[in-house]
């Protein structure tokens, strides 16, 4: 009996549940419908003063019931089909995303915006505005100096990695950054990417009157004048700091412009530190700000509206007024932006904080995300950069390092379906490559001649002014990662300027950076220019590297060396004296520095010619490559050099390849020669054809240090086809010389073909 009673109770409870739950659900959904969609009740609300009765009232009620029923059916359908995406929003997230928009979207509150963003970081149920597939997204970045030019590349990589739209970068730069970035983008050749440069030096007078304590200096104020700097027909732009990393498609941020309402012209994320609250330390007095203030690392600017609002006059008046009491800015343009917003809060559209997750010490950045999928933009806005304190800093650091070391060549992706502007350089390159015969056994050699290698000039800080006497000389060399250990030794032997081209991958470039920054010898030298040529293809483009280094020479003369050689102590000053002695300015001479070699890894480097001759006699030193390639340096006439006290002329001979000092305007190396073989021989032949005199210096020398055989010389020795192709290229070069120089070049045609 007891069991039967219990069974009846359970049955009764289930029956009541089945009866009341649908009714309660209908009431809840109906109430939710009235609350969520007030505009659906417009037939009743449109005329609140009209009397309720008669036919009009009946029609309004019927319309109201039908609309509510349709809305309820739609909501039931959504609730009965939950999203499959594990990161999709739950019903409570929908409500969190649709309510309380006054603060989080309009920007009139402080902490509410962060709470709402954290509660609903994924997209709202309401369909987000989309960006047209082929719409160009404009991005403005202020960049000045060597370090910022290096940092901005990581930002650009992260944007290119995720992007699906054409991009137009607007760089406000000093002369240094413009030179670096223009060369980089010219050689990067990314489809559907345009770049424009604006001279920051011309804008200095606009902001130089503002005292600024921030480490960014005067360039940290340049964003204030973008309405005046950027083209007058440009209506909107995304403005980014160089220490930004994107974790999503920038088109999602561009789409936020559609959410701007009324007089909103600035899209900003709330500042995530307590800086503007003024409680960081005793007597801390920040600039005025709305609540926590806003961070200007990521800004959406409606340029056309800002111009109509007389933005220039607005920020200037505000800055002048506040500087009377503050005396200077602490956070550069950010202080002035916030002071303007404090007076005119209607200008700002507050972005969810995942659009600018600020990783400086003591920030509230952790409130901006619950999951990795929430992250949109990471901002390394601490002077400590990657060493900042944060609970998830390892994750952020790894994300940053991913783009830092990512192969930029992989970002040369076409945007299918979008018409792109004609790029004549790219078109000419494609046309040239199409003319090559892919069945030619030497196709890869020929193709390398036309390969455009992405190039980053002045990877590290460079500061040098050539001497005013017109005798200065730059040492020119090229190297790969396996010769990095030679840099410190060369710097100790050569005190003058150096121009180096390094053939590295993106990851190796970062290894080199860490190596250089950890070397006291290299960091103490500001007159060494490091130019990164990024790896591409199967050959070592030795002559391209030499040409890159030569083009960055700023002195009247250059000493064309190789990284494996150590110049004698004092060679820099000796060459400068020889410039005057041999009247290099008015004659075409190539000054030959005799080359020697040692097979010992530890060598007591000779400090004079007498010491060198002694070691030569003892067998510690040898004339360079005497045992494998005598012809390369035999014309130097080492027997004569032993006793020479005055410079002497020598004649060109086949396969002559000395190391020489020439004027900066001397011809470049021929790019058809890659890897091992004939790369220097062809250049010396070119100098001879242009009637350069080869003059051997009697008291100069350089010594080749031992190392493992390079990969290219190994291929030359083991691969017959490699040698066949090199011979073919050599013959073609000789024929080209004959066409260019006529009868005078016959001697090059009859030169021994042994290489």
From TrEMBL:
Pathway(s) annotated for this protein in UniProt: Protein modification; protein glycosylation
Keywords annotated in UniProt: Glycoprotein, Glycosyltransferase, Golgi apparatus, Membrane, Multifunctional enzyme, Signal-anchor, Transferase, Transmembrane, Transmembrane helix
Region (Disordered): 75-125
Stored Gene3D superfamilies: Spore Coat Polysaccharide Biosynthesis Protein SpsA, Chain A (3.90.550.10)
Membrane topology (UniProt): Single-pass type II membrane protein
Catalytic reactions of this protein: 3-O-{beta-D-GlcA-(1->[3)-alpha-D-Xyl-(1->3)-beta-D-GlcA-(1->](n)-4)-beta-D-Xyl-(1->4)-Rib-ol-P-Rib-ol-P-3-beta-D-GalNAc-(1->3)-beta-D-GlcNAc-(1->4)-O-6-P-alpha-D-Man}-L-Thr-[protein] + UDP-alpha-D-xylose = 3-O-{(1->[3)-alpha-D-Xyl-(1->3)-beta-D-GlcA-(1->](n+1)-4)-beta-D-Xyl-(1->4)-Rib-ol-P-Rib-ol-P-3-beta-D-GalNAc-(1->3)-beta-D-GlcNAc-(1->4)-O-6-P-alpha-D-Man}-L-Thr-[protein] + UDP + H(+); 3-O-[beta-D-GlcA-(1->3)-beta-D-Xyl-(1->4)-Rib-ol-P-Rib-ol-P-3-beta-D-GalNAc-(1->3)-beta-D-GlcNAc-(1->4)-(O-6-P-alpha-D-Man)]-Thr-[protein] + UDP-alpha-D-xylose = 3-O-[alpha-D-Xyl-(1->3)-beta-D-GlcA-(1->4)-beta-D-Xyl-(1->4)-Rib-ol-P-Rib-ol-P-3-beta-D-GalNAc-(1->3)-beta-D-GlcNAc-(1->4)-(O-6-P-alpha-D-Man)]-Thr-[protein] + UDP + H(+); 3-O-{(1->[3)-alpha-D-Xyl-(1->3)-beta-D-GlcA-(1->](n)-4)-beta-D-Xyl-(1->4)-Rib-ol-P-Rib-ol-P-3-beta-D-GalNAc-(1->3)-beta-D-GlcNAc-(1->4)-O-6-P-alpha-D-Man}-L-Thr-[protein] + UDP-alpha-D-glucuronate = 3-O-{beta-D-GlcA-(1->[3)-alpha-D-Xyl-(1->3)-beta-D-GlcA-(1->](n)-4)-beta-D-Xyl-(1->4)-Rib-ol-P-Rib-ol-P-3-beta-D-GalNAc-(1->3)-beta-D-GlcNAc-(1->4)-O-6-P-alpha-D-Man}-L-Thr-[protein] + UDP + H(+)
Name of protein: LARGE xylosyl- and glucuronyltransferase 1
Lineage: Eukaryota, Metazoa, Chordata, Craniata, Vertebrata
